[in-house]
C-alpha cells in the first residue's frame, strides 16, 4: 500500500493536484483522481519500526507524475519515508511493484541510526538492499564516519563500502582515519571488517593490514588487537600483538605474544569467564630468557563460585619460576615488589546466624638475596566457625572457633585450636551509648619439630572485661559561610585482662598491631591469636565533626590517648617487661573536604616521653577544577622497618604529585617520592598527555624499586583513537595509582566535590 503524506499546506497540495491533472504523462484524469484524493486525505503517520516490513511508504515532492499503480516520478524537495528509512533528493523514481526508490541529486538518506549522502542512490524499501555512489556516511552508534566511492546495502543491517575511509573525528579533514579497499559494516553484529586497510595519522600511514576488524559499538569481538609497545631498563624495547577470542558472551581468551629485545619472545595467555554462579580469570606467561639462559614463567588464577545457596568456593593461586621474575618483568610498583605469592583455596558456608570457613593457604617466598626475610607459616588447613546473635533479651552473643595446622618446613609447627566467646549488653540512646562486654578465650597447642625434651602441648585461658562509652553533643555552626552541624563526641574505653605467662607458647601469626585510632579501641594490642596482652588501661578520646544538612562530613578533628594503670608484661618473645610508661603516645587527626577545591588529611603520633613526633602524615590536595589537581604529602615514621633490608630507621619522605594543563591541549602529570635521609627519589613518574578532538597521545616514564639495591624504569607511549582503539602501552593504571585525583583527559569533566 502506498500513501502520500500531506506534508505541505493545503494550498501546496492543491497545487500538486493541479500539476498532476495537467500532466501529459498521465493517460486520463479519471486515472489520477483516486491518487489525488488519497494524497489529499491521508495524514502523516509516525515512522514504523525498522522490522515492520508492512509499514506504508509516504512520499512528498514539489511535483509528482507517473502511474499510481506502477511508478511515480518525484521532482524537487523529494522525501520518501518507510519505517526508519528516509530518503531525500532532488529527484526520485518510486517503483511501486518492486517497492524500490532510485534517487539522484543531493541524495540524503537515513537507515536506522545511520546517515548517508551521495550523488545517486537506489534502495529496496522492503529488503533494505541498494547502493549509493560517492557517499559520505555517519554511524549513529559510535559516531564513526567516512566517505567512499560506493556503498552497497546488502540488507537492513549490512553494507559494503568500496574504496572508503573510516574515522570517529567530526572534522571534514580528520586527524586519523582508516582507508580500505573494501569495508563491511554489519550493524546487526556491531562489527566492521576491512580488507587492504591502512591506518593514517596526520596523513602518515602508521599501521597496515591485509585484513582487520573493529567494533561499531562497545561490544566485544574476536580479532587482532592493536599492538602495544614500550620500554624498560631491565628488558629494553618491547612489542606485543595480542589476539582476542570472543569465545562466548560470558568467556573469552587473549593470546599475548611479546618480543622483549634483550630477553626474547614471551608468550602469554589470559582467559576470563563469568556465569550466574561463578567468575574468574587466569593468566600465564613464559619466556626462554636470553639473559639468564633459563626458562621462566608466572601464573595467576582467581576464581569465585557459588556451589549452592550459602556455599561458596574460591581460590587465589600464584606462582613464579624464580625470585627475580616480578622485578624483571612487572610494570607496576605492586607487581615488582611482590615477594609473597599466595596459593589459597577456600570453602565457605554461611547461614543466618553462623558461618563455617575452611581454607588451605601456602606461600611462595621470592627472596631478595641481599636481604632475606622469613616465610610465613602455611595453614594446612584452617577451619573457622563464627556465630552471632544480637539483641537476645538485650544481649549480643558472638562465638569464634578456630582450628589451624601450621607448617613451615623444619621449623616448629603444629596444631592450634581456640574458641572465643563474647557477651555484650549495649545501651544505645540518643546522645550516649554504654557497652559492657565480657570475652573468654581458650587456646590449646599440639606442636611438632620441637627440641628433644621440650613440651609439645600447651594451653591458655584468658578472660577480658571491657567497657565502652561515649556521648554525642550537637550544635549549629558554619564553615566558610555554609550552615553545618558541629558535634562533640567524648569517648572512654576501659579494658582489663589478667596477665598469663605466654613465653613458652609458639608464635605462628601474632605481631604488634599498628598503633592508630582503630587500635586504641581494641582489647588486644597484638594481631593474630598467639599473644593476648595483659591490660589494665583506659583510652580517652574526643572527636568533633562538621556535618552538612545532607549528611556529608566536611571536617573531622580527633585526639586520643591510652592510660596504663599497670605496665603490660606480655611480649612477642620472652617475658621481658614491655613498660610503656603511664600513658601511650598521643594521637591527633585533622582532615576533611574543607572547601570544594581544598582537602586535607593529617595524623600525628606524638611521644610525650621523647617529646617528639614518632609518626606523622601531613597531606593536602588542591583540585580547583576537573583535570587539575596538586597533592603534597610529608610522611615521618621513626619506627619504620625497611621491607628490603629489614633494618629499622627513620623514614622521612616528601611526596608531590599532580595533573595540570600547561596549554589548551597539553597536560602534565607527575609524581616524585623523595627520601630525605637517602637523598634519592624512591619512586617517580613523569608524563605528558595531549588531548585533541578525537584522539589522545600519552608518553609516561616511571621509576619503581624492585629490591633493596635495584630499580626499574619503564616507558609508556600510547595513542588513543576515540571510538576505535588504543595503540601502544597503557599508562592509565600507573597514572591513577601514582596521582590521587587523576582524571582521564579523554573523559567528560567531572569533580568529586560537586556536592559542596
Helicity level: under 10%
Give Rg in angstroms: 37 Å
Q: How would you describe the oligomerization state of the chains in this entry?
A: single chain
Structural class: mainly beta
Q: What is the beta-strand fraction?
A: over 45%
Low-confidence stretches: 1-51
What is the count of DSSP helices, taking H or I runs of 4+ residues?
A: 5
Question: What number is the mean pLDDT?
Answer: 86
Shape: elongated
How far is the first residue's CA from the last residue's CA?
61 Å
**Total beta strand runs:** 48
Largest sheet: 26 strands, antiparallel, barrel
Task: Walk me through this protein's architecture.
It is a single chain. With 756 residues, the chain is mainly β. 5% of the residues lie in helices and 58% in strands. Helix 1 (10-21) runs antiparallel to helix 2. Strand 25 and strand 26 form a beta hairpin. It is elongated and about 110 Å long.
List the helices and strands and how they pair.
Layout: E1 2-4, H1 10-21, H2 29-41, E2 57-60, E3 63-67, E4 71-82, E5 85-95, E6 100-111, E7 114-124, E8 130-133, E9 136-138, E10 145-147, E11 150-153, E12 158-166, E13 176-186, E14 191-201, E15 204-215, E16 223-224, E17 228-232, E18 236-240, E19 243-248, E20 251-260, E21 264-274, E22 278-289, E23 294-308, E24 311-320, H3 325-329, H4 333-336, E25 340-350, E26 354-365, E27 378-392, E28 395-407, E29 413-424, E30 427-429, E31 432-448, E32 457-471, E33 473-479, E34 482-497, E35 511-512, E36 526-527, E37 535-547, E38 553-564, E39 586-592, E40 598-607, E41 612-625, E42 628-637, E43 651-661, E44 666-675, E45 680-691, E46 695-705, E47 711-721, E48 725-728, H5 732-738
Parallel strand pairs: 1-2
Antiparallel strand pairs: 2-4, 3-4, 4-5, 5-6, 6-7, 7-8, 7-9, 8-11, 9-10, 11-12, 12-13, 13-14, 14-15, 16-19, 17-18, 17-47, 18-20, 19-20, 20-21, 21-22, 22-23, 23-24, 24-25, 25-26, 26-27, 27-28, 28-29, 29-31, 30-31, 31-32, 32-34, 33-34, 34-37, 35-36, 37-38, 38-39, 39-40, 40-41, 41-42, 42-43, ...
Helix pairs in contact: 1-2
Amino acid at each position: 500500500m502506498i500513501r502520500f503524506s500531506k506534508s505541505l499546506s493545503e494550498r501546496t497540495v492543491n497545487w500538486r493536484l493541479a500539476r498532476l491533472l495537467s500532466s501529459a504523462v498521465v493517460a486520463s484524469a479519471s486515472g489520477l483522481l483516486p491518487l489525488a484524493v488519497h494524497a489529499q486525505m491521508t495524514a502523516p503517520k509516525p515512522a514504523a519500526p525498522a522490522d515492520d516490513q508492512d509499514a506504508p511508504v509516504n512520499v512528498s515532492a514539489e511535483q509528482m507524475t507517473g502511474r499510481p499503480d506502477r511508478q511515480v516520478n518525484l521532482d524537487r524537495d523529494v522525501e520518501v519515508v518507510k519505517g526508519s528509512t528516509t530518503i531525500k533528493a532532488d529527484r526520485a523514481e518510486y517503483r511501486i511493484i518492486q517497492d524500490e526508490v532510485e534517487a539522484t541529486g543531493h541524495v540524503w538518506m537515513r537507515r536506522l541510526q545511520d546517515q548517508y549522502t551521495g550523488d545517486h542512490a537506489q534502495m529496496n524499501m522492503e529488503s533494505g538492499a541498494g547502493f549509493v555512489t560517492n557517499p559520505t556516511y555517519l554511524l549513529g552508534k559510535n559516531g564513526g564516519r567516512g566517505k567512499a566511492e560506493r556503498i552497497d546495502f546488502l540488507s537492513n543491517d549490512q553494507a559494503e563500502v568500496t574504496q572508503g575511509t573510516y574515522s570517529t573525528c567530526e572534522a571534514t579533514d580528520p586527524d586519523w582515519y582508516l582507508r580500505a579497499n573494501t569495508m563491511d559494516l554489519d550493524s546487526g553484529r556491531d562489527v566492521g571488517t576491512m580488507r587492504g586497510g591502512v591506518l593514517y595519522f596526520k596523513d602518515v600511514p602508521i599501521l597496515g593490514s591485509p585484513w582487520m576488524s573493529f567494533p561499531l559499538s562497545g561490544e566485544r569481538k574476536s580479532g587482532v588487537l592493536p599492538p602495544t609497545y614500550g620500554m624498560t631498563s631491565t628488558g629494553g624495547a618491547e612489542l606485543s600483538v595480542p589476539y582476542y577470542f570472543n569465545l562466548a558472551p560470558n568467556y573469552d581468551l587473549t593470546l599475548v605474544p611479546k618480543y622483549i629485545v634483550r630477553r626474547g619472545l614471551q608468550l602469554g595467555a589470559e582467559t576470563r569467564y563469568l556465569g550466574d554462579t561463578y567468575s574468574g580469570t587466569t593468566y600465564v606467561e613464559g619466556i626462554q630468557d636470553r639473559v639468564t639462559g633459563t626458562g621462566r614463567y608466572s601464573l595467576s588464577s582467581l576464581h569465585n563460585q557459588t556451589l549452592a545457596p550459602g556455599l561458596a568456593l574460591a581460590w587465589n593461586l600464584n606462582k613464579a619460576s624464580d625470585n627475580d621474575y616480578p622485578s624483571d618483568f612487572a610494570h607496576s610498583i605492586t607487581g615488582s615488589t611482590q615477594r609473597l605469592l599466595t596459593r589459597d583455596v577456600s570453602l565457605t558456608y554461611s547461614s543466618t546466624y553462623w558461618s563455617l570457613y575452611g581454607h588451605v593457604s601456602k606461600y611462595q617466598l621470592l627472596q631478595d638475596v641481599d636481604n632475606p626475610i622469613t616465610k610465613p607459616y602455611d595453614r594446612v588447613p584452617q577451619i573457622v566457625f563464627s556465630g552471632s546473635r544480637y539483641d537476645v533479651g538485650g544481649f549480643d552473643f558472638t562465638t569464634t572457633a578456630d582450628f589451624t595446622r601450621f607448617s613451615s618446613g623444619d621449623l616448629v609447627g603444629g596444631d592450634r585450636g581456640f574458641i572465643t566467646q563474647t557477651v555484650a549488653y549495649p545501651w544505645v540512646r540518643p546522645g550516649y551509648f554504654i557497652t559492657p562486654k565480657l570475652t573468654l578465650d581458650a587456646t590449646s597447642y599440639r606442636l611438632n619439630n620441637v627440641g628433644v625434651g621440650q613440651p609439645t602441648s600447651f594451653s591458655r585461658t584468658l578472660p577480658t572485661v571491657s567497657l565502652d562509652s561515649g556521648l554525642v553533643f550537637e550544635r549549629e555552626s558554619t564553615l566558610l559561610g555554609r550552615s553545618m552541624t558541629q558535634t562533640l563526641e567524648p569517648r572512654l574505653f576501659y579494658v582489663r585482662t589478667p596477665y598469663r605467662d605466654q613465653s613458652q607458647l609458639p608464635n605462628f601469626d601474632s605481631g604488634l598491631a599498628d598503633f592508630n585510632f582503630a587500635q586504641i579501641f581494641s582489647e588486644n594490642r597484638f594481631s593474630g591469636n598467639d599473644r593476648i596482652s595483659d591490660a589494665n588501661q583506659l583510652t580517652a578520646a574526643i572527636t568533633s565533626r562538621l556535618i552538612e544538612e545532607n549528611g556529608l562530613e566536611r571536617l573531622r578533628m580527633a585526639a586520643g590517648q591510652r592510660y596504663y594503670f599497670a605496665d603490660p608484661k606480655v611480649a612477642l618473645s620472652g617475658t621481658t617487661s614491655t613498660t610503656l610508661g603511664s600513658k601511650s603516645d598521643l594521637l591527633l587527626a585533622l582532615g576533611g573536604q574543607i572547601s570544594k577545591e581544598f582537602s586535607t588529611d593529617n595524623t600525628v603520633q606524638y611521644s610525650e616521653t621523647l617529646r617528639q613526633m614518632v609518626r606523622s602524615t601531613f597531606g593536602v590536595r588542591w583540585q580547583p577544577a576537573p583535570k587539575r589537581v596538586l597533592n603534597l604529602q610529608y610522611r615521618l615514621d621513626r619506627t619504620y622497618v625497611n621491607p628490603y633490608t629489614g633494618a629499622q630507621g627513620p623514614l622521612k619522605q616528601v611526596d608531590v604529585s599532580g595533573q595540570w594543563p600547561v596549554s589548551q591541549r597539553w597536560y602534565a602529570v607527575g609524581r616524585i617520592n623523595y627520601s630525605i635521609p637517602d637523598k634519592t627519589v624512591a619512586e617517580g613518574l613523569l608524563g605528558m598527555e595531549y588531548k585533541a578532538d578525537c584522539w589522545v597521545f600519552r608518553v609516561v616514564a616511571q621509576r619503581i624499586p624492585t629490591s633493596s639495591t635495584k630499580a626499574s624504569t619503564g616507558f609508556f607511549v600510547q595513542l588513543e583513537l576515540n571510538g576505535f582503539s588504543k595503540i601502544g602501552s597503557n599508562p592509565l593504571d600507573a597514572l591513577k595509582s601514582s596521582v590521587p585525583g587523576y582524571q582521564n583527559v579523554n573523559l567528560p569533566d567531572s569533580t568529586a566535590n560537586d556536592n559542596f
